[in-house]
Recover the amino acids of this structure.
C-alpha cells in the first residue's frame, strides 16, 4: 500500500511537470510566431529569422505606422487617498504636495490596476507619518523607455520647482525601474534644470537591467492583457483594441532585448548622485533545471526523428524553443519567469535581495510570497 501510494504520488508529480512543460512550450511557440525580436538599431526583421516571422514583422510594422496618429499618450501622477482602507486615487494639487512621496511604477504591459493594488498593499504595511503620501505614475506600458523616462523627469522637475522640500522614494517593477533609471541617470537636456536631490531612494523589483530573452515574446503579454480585460467585461472590444495602440507600439520590447543599443547606453550611465538603490529580484522561475534538460533532450529527439534539420525554417523555431526552455529567465533558482537574477544586477548597487517570487506575482497581493515581498520593500523604505 505504501509503495502504491509513493508510485501514485510520483505519477502525479510527473503529470504536473508535463502539464507545466506543455503550457510553457505553448507560450514559447506562440511567441515564435508573433515575436517582436527586432534589432534595437533597426526595426526591420532580422535576416536570420524564419521567413514567416519576417513577413509577420513587416505587416506589424506597417500597422504600427498606421496606428501612430491614433496614439494618445497618457502620463501622470495620481495619489492614493490617505487611509489604510481606502480604495480610491485622486489628483493632488501641486500646492498640496506632502513632505515625502512614495511613487509606485509598473512595468512592461502592466496595467494601472496592478500598480494600484501594490501601492495600496504597501500603504497598509507602512507606518508612515501624515506628511507622506503614496502615488502612482501612469505611462505607456510598452512605449519607448527614454520617452517615458523623459516625461517622468519633467514631472519630478515640476514637483521640485513647486515644492523644493518634497522628497521622493520610487518603487518600480520590472521595466519601470529602467524608466526611472533613465529619468535619474541620463544627461540633463540643454537649458533644463537637474533633478538631483529630488529622489533619494529607488527600489527596483525584478528589473531587467541587462534585458530579458523573453522581450521578443511580448505579444503574448499584450494579448493576455487584452483577454483579461475582455473577461472582466468592463470595457468594449473597440475600447480594448484602441487601448493596445494608446499604451505604446512595442518600442520597449525592442529596447529590452539583451545587449540592445538602448541597454548599452543606459548601463553606461553613472548611478544618480544622492540616490540609494535597492534591488529585489525573484527566483521562482516556472521550469526546474531537470525539466529544462528534459525538454532540451526532447527537442533534440524530435529533430532527429522527424529530420526537421532538413527544414531550415522549422529548425530555427526548434533552436529558439530549446534556447528559451533552458534560459536562466525561466529556470527555477536562476530567474523569476521573465528576468534572470544576473540580469537584475547593476554595477554600483550593493543592496541586492533575492525573493521567492515570480515576475508577475508582484501585484497578486493576496499571495503569501507577495506579502513577504511588500514587507521587505516597506522595511527597506527610506523615510517611511
Amino acid at each position: 500500500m505504501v509503495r502504491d501510494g509513493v508510485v501514485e504520488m510520483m505519477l502525479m508529480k510527473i503529470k504536473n511537470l508535463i502539464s507545466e512543460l506543455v503550457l510553457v512550450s505553448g507560450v514559447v511557440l506562440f511567441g515564435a510566431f508573433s515575436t517582436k525580436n527586432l534589432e534595437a538599431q533597426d526595426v526591420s526583421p532580422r535576416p536570420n529569422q524564419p521567413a514567416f516571422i519576417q513577413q509577420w514583422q513587416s505587416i506589424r510594422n506597417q500597422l504600427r505606422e498606421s496606428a501612430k496618429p491614433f496614439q494618445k499618450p497618457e502620463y501622470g501622477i495620481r495619489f492614493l487617498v490617505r487611509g489604510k482602507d481606502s480604495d480610491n486615487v485622486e489628483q493632488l494639487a501641486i500646492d498640496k504636495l506632502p513632505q515625502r512621496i512614495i511613487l509606485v511604477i509598473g512595468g512592461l504591459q502592466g496595467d494601472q490596476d496592478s500598480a494600484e493594488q501594490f501601492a495600496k498593499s504597501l500603504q497598509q504595511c507602512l507606518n508612515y507619518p501624515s506628511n507622506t503620501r503614496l502615488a502612482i505614475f501612469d505611462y505607456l506600458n510598452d512605449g519607448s523607455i527614454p520617452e517615458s523616462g523623459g516625461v517622468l523627469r519633467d514631472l519630478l522637475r515640476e514637483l521640485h520647482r513647486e515644492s523644493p522640500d518634497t522628497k521622493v522614494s520610487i518603487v518600480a517593477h520590472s521595466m519601470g525601474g529602467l524608466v526611472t533609471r533613465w529619468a535619474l541617470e541620463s544627461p540633463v537636456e540643454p537649458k533644463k534644470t537637474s533633478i538631483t536631490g529630488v529622489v533619494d531612494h529607488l527600489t527596483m523589483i525584478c528589473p531587467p537591467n541587462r534585458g530579458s530573452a523573453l522581450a521578443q515574446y511580448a505579444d503574448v503579454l499584450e494579448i493576455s492583457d487584452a483577454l483579461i480585460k475582455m473577461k472582466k467585461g468592463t470595457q468594449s472590444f473597440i475600447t480594448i483594441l484602441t487601448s493596445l495602440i494608446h499604451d505604446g507600439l512595442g518600442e520597449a520590447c525592442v529596447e529590452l532585448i539583451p545587449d540592445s543599443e538602448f541597454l548599452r547606453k543606459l548601463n553606461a550611465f553613472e548611478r544618480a548622485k544622492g540616490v540609494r538603490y535597492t534591488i529585489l529580484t525573484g527566483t521562482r522561475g516556472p521550469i526546474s533545471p531537470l525539466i529544462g534538460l528534459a525538454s532540451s533532450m526532447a527537442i533534440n529527439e524530435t529533430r532527429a526523428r522527424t529530420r526537421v534539420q532538413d527544414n531550415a525554417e522549422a529548425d530555427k523555431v526548434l533552436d529558439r524553443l530549446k534556447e528559451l526552455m533552458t534560459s536562466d529567465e525561466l529556470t527555477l533558482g536562476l530567474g523569476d519567469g521573465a528576468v534572470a537574477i544576473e540580469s537584475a544586477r547593476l554595477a554600483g548597487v550593493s543592496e541586492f535581495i533575492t525573493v521567492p517570487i515570480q515576475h508577475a506575482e508582484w501585484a497578486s497581493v493576496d499571495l503569501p510570497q507577495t506579502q513577504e515581498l511588500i514587507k521587505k520593500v516597506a522595511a527597506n523604505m527610506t523615510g517611511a
